[in-house]
Amino acid sequence: MNKVVLVTGANSGIGMALCERLLSRDTEGLQLCLACRNMYRAQAARAALLTSHPTAQVALLQMDTSSISSVLTAAQEVKLRYNRLDYLYLNAGIMPNPQFDVKAFFKGIFSSNIITMFATGEGILTQKDDVTSDGLQEVFATNLFGHFLLIRELEPVLCQPDRTSHLIWTSSSNAHRSAFSLEDIQHRKGTQPYSSSKYASDLLNLALNTHFNKQGLYSSVICPGFVMTNLTYGILPSFPAFVWSLLMPVFWLIRMFTNTFTLTPYNGAEALFWLFKQKPESLDPQAKYHSLTSGLGNNYTQPRKMDIDLETSEALFEKLLQLESEVRKKLKEKQKASQHLHSA
Ligand SMILES: NC(=O)C1=CN([C@@H]2O[C@H](COP(=O)(O)OP(=O)(O)OC[C@H]3O[C@@H](n4cnc5c(N)ncnc54)[C@H](OP(=O)(O)O)[C@@H]3O)[C@@H](O)[C@H]2O)C=CC1
Ligand SMILES: CC(C)CCC[C@@H](C)[C@H]1CC[C@H]2C3=C(CC[C@]12C)[C@@]1(C)CCC(=O)[C@@H](C)[C@@H]1CC3
């Protein structure tokens, strides 16, 4: 039986590079499903993958992870199409309206914190978040909650007695405990929704392992390192693409000191690809698997312990379940109201 692999945010950057790498390893034995919000971009990605792998099975699925109804519809479609789901890559993510603190950046360059700053972006980035039509914070909804709902909906295909399934989150080394609060899981009040959402995915990863390992479902998190993609280009929008290219020698130099500068989507997808080849039972639920690239350009994956604890991960899991039941209730009421309107 062919393995079924679903990747969210598969039409560009790290998600797209992962698809390319998976098909290069095994073109015939995989059923790849690209879950994307924009079907034009999804079709372009599918066409590019089929150009290099003409015999591959590549399907498309429309899904906007920031929209509850879109996630629920997409999950129904997955259950109709597939009776198994071996790998679910939870990769779609946004960092909207990033503000780059130039002063903090230059201060960081001349401090002992320089390596941490380049590896994590800590202290130099904030974002302005939005609210979705479901009334959720956009970064939380896109990066975390949409994926949580998807997993909950797909439980019947993910938890099967005769085999294991693997959830793999694209988190970040920008995830930081100080940006996250259990009292404000959506990060309505702060200025670091991205860091908060990624820290929440690290916590949720642990809770998912606690609750689902017995049912054959495993979860892992990775950090791709600093990769040049649409997401990072958005951090300095005044820089045209050629300026980023001109900066490449500087970045290669920085890579000599911090191997987190993976830079290309291919390199950034290293840990995602490495996890595909591992037995999920052998992995550490408290570790984040980092894509790293050496000064000489060699890729490797390294686990690093995360700053998370069981108690907070359980508390977050409970809060997410509670939010899930609230949004489902709201959605039902909305559907009832529109039915009334139609029948009147
Ligand atoms: N680049 C980096 O340095 C790092 C990236 N990451 C993480 O890697 C992941 C991939 O990002 P990256 O490849 O860098 O950036 P890209 O912007 O290239 O990829 C992000 C993908 O997510 C999709 N996406 C965004 N919002 C939604 C949504 N609401 N519903 C469905 N899909 C959506 C995008 O679709 P569309 O094309 O339609 O926008 C795109 O396919 C993200 O989770 C990011 O946080 C983590 C650490 C570092
Ligand atoms: C103009 C200058 C010569 C160079 C500017 C460099 C910064 C824009 C980058 C240095 C470290 C980068 C970084 C990220 C974004 C861009 C930098 C701040 C991230 C925060 C991107 C998203 C992530 O998830 C992190 C892992 C990245 C960490 C490093």
Question: Please, could you describe this protein's structure?
Answer:
By secondary structure, this protein is of the alpha/beta class. The protein has one domain: Rossmann fold, CATH 3.40.50.720. It is built from 13 helices and ten strands. The strands form two sheets. An eight-stranded mixed sheet has the order 3-2-1-4-7-8-9-10, sandwiched between helices. α1 links the parallel β1 and β2. α6 runs parallel beside α7 and α7 crosses α13. The radius of gyration is 20 Å and the shape is globular. NADPH dihydro-nicotinamide-adenine-dinucleotide phosphate (NDP) binds next to α1 and α8. NADPH dihydro-nicotinamide-adenine-dinucleotide phosphate binds next to α1 and α8.
Write the topology of this structure.
Layout: E1 3-8, H1 13-25, E2 30-36, H2 39-52, E3 57-62, H3 68-81, E4 87-90, E5 98-100, H4 102-109, H5 114-120, E6 125-127, H6 138-158, E7 165-170, H7 193-212, E8 217-223, H8 230-233, H9 241-246, H10 248-255, H11 265-268, H12 270-276, E9 287-293, E10 299-305, H13 310-343
Parallel strand pairs: 1-2, 1-4, 2-3, 4-7, 7-8, 8-9
Antiparallel strand pairs: 5-6, 9-10
Helix pairs in contact: 3-6, 6-7, 7-13
This protein binds NADPH dihydro-nicotinamide-adenine-dinucleotide phosphate (NDP) and ligand LFW5757T.
NADPH dihydro-nicotinamide-adenine-dinucleotide phosphate binds next to α1 and α8.
Q: Uncertain spans, ≥5 residues at pLDDT below 50? A: none
Instruction: Tell me the number of helical segments per DSSP (H or I, 4 or more residues long).
Output: 13
Number of domains: 1
What name is given to the CATH topology? Rossmann fold
Mind telling me the CATH superfamily name? Answer: NAD(P)-binding Rossmann-like Domain
Bound molecules: NADPH dihydro-nicotinamide-adenine-dinucleotide phosphate, the ligand CC(C)CCC[C@@H](C)[C@H]1CC[C@H]2C3=C(CC[C@]12C)[C@@]1(C)CCC(=O)[C@@H](C)[C@@H]1CC3
Biggest sheet architecture: 8 strands, mixed
Shape: globular
Count all strands and give the number. Answer: 10
Please write the CATH class name.
Alpha Beta
N-C termini distance: 50 Å
The average pLDDT value, as a whole number, equals 96
Strand portion: 15-25%
Q: Helicity, in percent? A: 40-55%
Structural class: alpha/beta
- The succession of helices and strands, N to C, reads EHEHEHEEHHEHEHEHHHHHEEH
Which strands sit side by side, in order, in the main sheet? 3-2-1-4-7-8-9-10
Instruction: Report the CATH architecture.
Output: 3-Layer(aba) Sandwich
Q: How big is the Rg?
A: 20 Å
Membrane topology: Single-pass membrane protein
Subcellular location: Endoplasmic reticulum membrane
Keywords: Coiled coil, Endoplasmic reticulum, Glycoprotein, Lipid biosynthesis, Lipid metabolism, Membrane, NAD, NADP, Oxidoreductase, Steroid biosynthesis, Transmembrane, Transmembrane helix
Pathway: Steroid biosynthesis; estrogen biosynthesis; Steroid biosynthesis; zymosterol biosynthesis; zymosterol from lanosterol: step 5/6
